[in-house]
Amino acid sequence: QVQLVESGGGLVQPGESLRLSCAASGFTVRYYAIGWFRQAPGKEREGVLCIRPSGGITYYLDSVKDRFTISRDNAKNTVYLTVNSLQPDDTAIYYCATNQDTYCHTHASDIDYWGKGTQVTVSS
User: Which of 26, 66, 76, 77 has a C-alpha 20 to 30 A away from that of 4?
Assistant: First the structure.
């Protein structure tokens, strides 16, 4: 069955970077769109960005366009989210997600499959 496992989160200081991983099983990531979402304390889950099978990237948040990027390792069946210049407002649980189709879905309510998330905390 479809399984997504995130890792790589942690506690970092403002300005530092992390690389989050999303290891997939039960399907092949290169054929489907994979998105990253985040949920901060007391806020709704929001879309961050998404990679399509073509390699094209859709950003959902203007605030991360110059700092976050998404990539895919087909051999490892893993999608990565590299987050640079982290700020306290980036503190959240980060989730990867898919609908096993080729479309990037903006709204969390439309998503069929989720990982359990990885916590990113940015604090001095």
Answer: 66
